[in-house]
Task: structure prediction
Amino acid sequence: MKQVVSPQFEARNDFDIFRDLCRRFNREAAFTEGLDEMGWLKRIWQEGSQQGKGRGIHLPTFEVFWNQQEYIEFDHPQMFVRHQAFREDPDLEPLGTPSGLIEIYSKTIADMQYDDCQGHPMWFEKIERSHGGPGSQRWPLHLQSVHPDFRLHSQLCESETLRQQYAVGGKEPVFINPQDASARGIRNGDIVRVFNARGQVLAGAVVSDRYAPGVARIHEGAWYDPDKGGDINALCKYGNPNVLTLDIGTSQLAQATSAHTTLVEIEKYTGHIDNVTAFNGPVEMVAQCEYVPASQGNPHD
Result:
């Protein structure tokens, strides 16, 4: 995809930024491999084209792709079947495992001797778990923070047009089962506080039987909007679930996010509700600070 506009003001493209950073560490040649930005675009396209040929997908040359003012359409009627070649002939089309087969036990992982990730699937009790697990007496609701329907992670959360499609009372929605809502005196459309020992957010309640009792959901990507910037106990006025999740990896091996291991409590919010300011843009400081382009250095040096 071509850029919509060239970098504005002092902004630069990522390639130039990282190239200059590598130059400071004498690693520019290793980073660029002798190619400029356009050279890398051509290489990526050519490598993709080569991979496509092996799958019966034929792409045009880079020049045709880059210069034509329309989408490229190509047919690929064959239905994708995972590991199809392996399933049809496992001897000639082995998998990328040491044995070439589907492995339940991995000696490679076992030899790492991690306490929390051994060589075969095992159950490990979580730090916190709903429905009778650790921490559920104090925080009884399991919070899901899955991908949203109306944006890409946090991208387009600032779009008022899109927020009108899903926001509740100007907040990110929290979905809650009718039983859990009734027990807490929460009705559809209420502003609620979702909280645990790590943080707290405001959200708009959506009461729905699509979610099991003991389970709530706030989509990830909602913009963070603290009522007191820099305060660890700040209340997020819009509904970012990141303030509620654990900041630990899933295991010593994977080190992935553990966003789905989160317990919370929800209550109807009766306090003062400040306006959401996350979408207002940066505060102008021109009158208070002298602006000096980075290229000119510090005038007081």
Observations:
- The radius of gyration is 26 Å.
- The longest helix spans residues 37-53.
